[in-house]
Amino acid sequence: MIASDIDGTFINSAGRVTPRLRAVVARAVEAGAFFCLATGRPHRWLPPITDQLPFGPVSICANGAVIYDPARDEIVHAFELASSTMAEVIEAVEPVMSDVIHGFGVERVGRGEEFLITREYNPDAWDDRFGVVDVDELIAQPATKLLIRCGYLTSSEMFERIAPVVDGADAHVTYSMDEGLIEVSCPGVNKASSVALLAERYGVDAADVIAFGDMPNDLEMLTWAGRGIAMGNASPVLTSAADEVTDTNDNDGVAKILERWF
C-alpha cells in the first residue's frame, strides 16, 4: 500500500502531478497495490489533485479527521471535535497568544457551511467563500479541525507556545505549513491512524505500507508505516525520523522511489 501526502510531496511547486509520477502510480495500482492520498487539506480541495489521476483514490483528509471517497463524493468517516473540547482548547490557547493578533477557524463536514472563521483569522476576508462569525458561533457545532492562525509567527513558533498547553488527551496539535497556522483535531487522530484504518480495510499490514511526506503532520504516518520516506524538501523533523530521504517534490522524489518496484 502506498500513502502519500499531497502538498510538498505528491505535487510539485506548480501544483501538478508530473507525468512520470502519474505513470508509476498507475502501474502500481494496475499491479495490485492500494494507493491513498493523505493530506491536511479538506476534502473539498481534492478535485484539483484527483482530476490529474486516472482513478479516484479513497483519501485521508484534514490530517486524518476525514476519510473521503472522491469517486462517490462520499464521506466514509469523520472524527469530530466536540464544541466543549474546542472551547477548552481556545481557553488554553488565549493566554499564550495574547501578545499577538490571532484568530480561529473550523472545518466541518455535512453541516451546511463547511469553513468558518473569526474576523482575526483573516482580516482581509471580503468574499463569500467562508463565513465570518464570533467564537461562540464558530464552535457551536462539532468540527473535524479547529484552526489557529497568526500572521506574526511561524507555525513552528506557534506550536512551541500552543502544544504544551493543550492536553493530548483532549486534542492533537500539529501543522502542515510554516505560514502561521496550527491545526487541532481529535486526540489520537492523525494521518497514521486513518491510513491504518484503510490498510486494515484492504488487508494490508503496516510493514507493507510505504508512506511519503514533508511536514510535521506527516510524522506519525512515516513512523507507523513499514517504510517512511521523507522528501528532499522536508522539515528536519521528518528527515531525522524517516527510513530514507528521497529527492524533492520538484524532482520526482516520490516517483524515483516507486520506480524501484513498478
UniProtKB/TrEMBL annotation:
Keywords: Hydrolase. Coiled coil: none annotated. Pfam families: Hydrolase_3. InterPro entries: Cof, HAD-like_sf, HAD-SF_hydro_IIB, HAD_sf. One of its GO terms (molecular function) is magnesium ion binding. It comes from the Bacteria. CDD domains: HAD_Pase. One of its GO terms (cellular component) is cytosol. This is HAD family hydrolase. The lineage of its organism: Bacteria, Bacillati, Actinomycetota, Actinomycetes, Mycobacteriales.
